[in-house]
C-alpha cells in the first residue's frame, strides 16, 4: 500500500473546513488508495481550538480507513512540518466597513507568516492552494514569502468560478455539465473574473455558436458567475462553503492526479503568458499531468476578451501593489 502523505489545512474549524476535511479523509482528493495524515491549523484562541477538537472527534467517528493520522496545531511552523499538500483556507475576508488597507495588512500578516513557515518546514514539493480571500493576493504573498520553494507550487482557487460557469452554461444549453469541455476562466477570484466559453465545446460543437448571444454573455452570464458568491450569501445568510470545499477538492485532485487532457482553471503565477506580467497570480486555463499544470497555449484573445482580461488584471495589480511594502 502507498506511503501516507501529509495534508495541512488552515481554518480547519471554519465552514469550509467542515465541508472539506471529511472528503479529504475519505479519499476524494488524492485517491481511494492514498492514506493521509491531516495537520490542522487554527488560530491560537480557545473557541476555534475547542471547535477543532470537535471536528477531529467527528473525523475519528467516521473511522475512515485512509485517515492514518491527525494533529491539531496553533502554529504554522508545526502545522506545515513536512507537509505535501497545504490548503490555506483561513483568512480575514473583507467585513462591512473595513478599510482596504486594514484588510491587506491583516492578510499580509497571516500569509507572510504562513509562507515563511512553508518555506522553512514543508516538503520541497509541497503543493499549496490558497482559498482564503482575497485568494490570488494571499497566494502571491505566501509565494513571495517562500523564496526557497518553487513559485509554481503556489496556486489560488479559481475553480469555484470555473464550476459556476460550467453549471450556468449547462442550464443555458440544456446539456449535461459533464459534456462541456474547454472552458477557461481568466484573472482574479472576484466579480472581475472573465469566464470565457469562446473555445468551449459540447460533444464537439461550439458552445459560442450554440448560445450565439453576446448580450447574454455580457449582461447575464458574466454578472451571474461574478456575483454568485454574493447571491449565495443573500440566500443562505452564509457564504459558500460546500461548493467552495468541492472546488478545492477538484483543484487539488486534478493537480495531483491529472486531468486527462481536460481544461480546468487554476490561479497560478504568470511567466508572462498571454501578456500577463510575471509573478501575477492569475487564473488561466490549464491541463494537468504527472503532478504538474500546463497553461493552454495559443488561444486567440479578441478585443472583448482583452478588455475583460485588462480589467481583472488591473484589479489584481492594484491588490498586489497594496501589499508590496509587506514583502
Ligand atoms: P469561516 O469564518 O467559517 O472559517 C475560517 C476559519 O479560519 C475560522 O475558524 C478562523 O478561526 C480560521 N482562521 C483565521 N485566520 C487563521 C489563521 N491565520 N490561521 C489558521 N486559521 C485561521 O470562513 P469560511 O466560510 O470557512 O471561509 C474561509 C475563507 O474562504 C474566507 O476567506 C472566504 O472569503 C474564502 N472563500 C473563498 C472562495 C474562493 O473561491 N476562493 C469561495 C468561498 C469563500 O468565500
From TrEMBL:
Q: Give the Gene3D superfamilies listed for this entry.
A: Lactate dehydrogenase/glycoside hydrolase, family 4, C-terminal, NAD(P)-binding Rossmann-like Domain
Which part of the chain is the Lactate/malate dehydrogenase C-terminal domain? Answer: 159-324
Q: Which domain of life is it from?
A: Bacteria
Lactate/malate dehydrogenase N-terminal domain residues are 5-154
Annotated residues that bind substrate are located at 94, 100, 133, 164
- Quick one: which residues bind NAD(+)? 11-17, 107, 114, 131-133
Record's keyword terms, sorted: NAD, Oxidoreductase, Tricarboxylic acid cycle
Catalytic positions?
A: 189
Q: What's this protein's family per the entry?
A: Belongs to the LDH/MDH superfamily. MDH type 2 family.
Q: What is this protein called?
A: Malate dehydrogenase
Q: Which organism is it from?
A: Roseateles toxinivorans
Lineage in the entry? Bacteria, Pseudomonadati, Pseudomonadota, Betaproteobacteria, Burkholderiales
